[in-house]
Amino acid sequence: VFPGSVDATGQRATLGVLGGGQLGRMFVHAAQRLGYFTAVLEPDAQSPAGLVSHHHIQTGYDDPAGLAQLAQLCQAITTEFENVPAQALQTLAQTRPVAPGAAVVAIAQNRIEEKAHFAACADLSGVTCAPYAVIETPAQLQAVQNDRADLLPGILKTARMGYDGKGQVRVKTAAELAAAWAELGSVACVLEKMLPLTAECSVLVARGWDGQVVSFAPQRNVHVDGILAVTHAYEGNMPPALADKACEAAVSIAHHLGYVGVLCVEFFVVEDGSAHGGLVVNEMAPRPHNSGHYTIDACDASQFDLQVHAMAGLPLPQPRQHSPAIMLNLLGDVWFDASGQLREPDWQSVLSLPGTHLHLYGKSEARVGRKMGHLTITGPDVASVKTVARRAASLLS
Ligand code: ADP
Ligand code: MG
């Protein structure tokens, strides 16, 4: 699908995305920069991506008429939201190239299948996931309580629909485990051993229809209350041997899945001397990822550019990072002062700092914990980026 092309009926080359959140918005921006028209399928009338797209199909993700319209308008389709029904991607794939495909999205949507996939390619990737057990039935709960004391203290996570630390309960004892499973609605879960993390990192890879892969260097991520808070993206952000290992693992996971598009693989760095060789794979997101937003301002091709290239069958350039960067997530919390009053953040001061790039997602209402935007800081060297990031963070606290 070449950008800017017009077919015999006058229809413009159009790329489609299922989901209207901020990831869709940044995808739309990247596609439009190349001359594509865009179509967003999203039920919310005021969604970040719908507001900036040429076409906004305002239906549910599984609405047959909406999906038919999306397929009719677009030459290739992607998703920005991993809990979009895999069936919707399956339906679209009958008539259009869809990247990533329904099968890999279905794996990433379910922690049980995701972990089974990581285990299946552990020999190739060189990394395993944290020790875990599946709990789908009362009998399995009982068996884990009886035989898997090695998994405590642990984290019970719902198999489906968890994100930003939601759908998780930390448990110390077998009794707490039973209570937590009930609290989560006795749905399918995994119990994961709590690991002593020294750091977390993620790797973004892009894979084309022909199996070509390019990747970004791993970024180090700091989570607060289960939500990404800060991403450190510069040389020396983690030990080079671990960075190489994470990169190779992410690439082999993408190959093993036959993945097409941008994939983010998240890792734990665990205390040395453990059985895991320092690196444990946590989860994957079948789409561009919050931890890769710095690539817009700090690299010569962003994760969204690569998503466009991959789905449209354009060449995949190996991205080059030209500036060290730190990304600060801007949650709705920033819009409230200490006494809980709504306020406008001090953009005047933040934007007067050198190398600050503000991205706001166009959400009309700030809520605590809601991702409203992010601030990427770039600079000539790591020390100055860190200094500006500290100042920006204190202005925004
Ligand atoms: P989500 O889908 O909400 O991102 P994660 O599985 O990534 O769920 O968990 C969110 C955060 O909780 C992780 O980034 C990490 O900080 C912490 N966490 C999750 N699993 C473990 C574990 N097994 N050991 C230690 N910390 C964990
Ligand atoms: Mg996570």
From TrEMBL:
Residue stretches making up the ATP-grasp domain: 119-312
PROSITE patterns tied to this protein: ATP_GRASP
EC nos: 6.3.4.18
Keyword presence, Ligase: yes
SUPFAM superfamilies, A to Z: Glutathione synthetase ATP-binding domain-like, PreATP-grasp domain, Rudiment single hybrid motif
Alphabetical keyword list: ATP-binding, Ligase, Nucleotide-binding, Purine biosynthesis
Residues that bind ATP: 111, 157, 162-168, 192-195, 200, 223, 282-283
Stored InterPro entries: ATP-grasp, ATP-grasp_carboxylate-amine, ATP_grasp_subdomain_1, PreATP-grasp_dom_sf, PurK, PurK_C, PurT/PurK_preATP-grasp, Rudment_hybrid_motif
GO molecular function terms listed in the Swiss-Prot or TrEMBL record: 5-(carboxyamino)imidazole ribonucleotide synthase activity
UniProt catalytic activity: 5-amino-1-(5-phospho-beta-D-ribosyl)imidazole + hydrogencarbonate + ATP = 5-carboxyamino-1-(5-phospho-D-ribosyl)imidazole + ADP + phosphate + 2 H(+)
Pathway: Purine metabolism; IMP biosynthesis via de novo pathway; 5-amino-1-(5-phospho-D-ribosyl)imidazole-4-carboxylate from 5-amino-1-(5-phospho-D-ribosyl)imidazole (N5-CAIR route): step 1/2
Function field: Catalyzes the ATP-dependent conversion of 5-aminoimidazole ribonucleotide (AIR) and HCO(3)- to N5-carboxyaminoimidazole ribonucleotide (N5-CAIR). Catalyzes the ATP-dependent conversion of 5-aminoimidazole ribonucleotide (AIR) and HCO(3)(-) to N5-carboxyaminoimidazole ribonucleotide (N5-CAIR).
Record family assignment: Belongs to the PurK/PurT family.
Subunit structure: Homodimer.
HAMAP family, alphabetized: PurK
Protein name stated in the entry: N5-carboxyaminoimidazole ribonucleotide synthase
Source organism: Hymenobacter defluvii
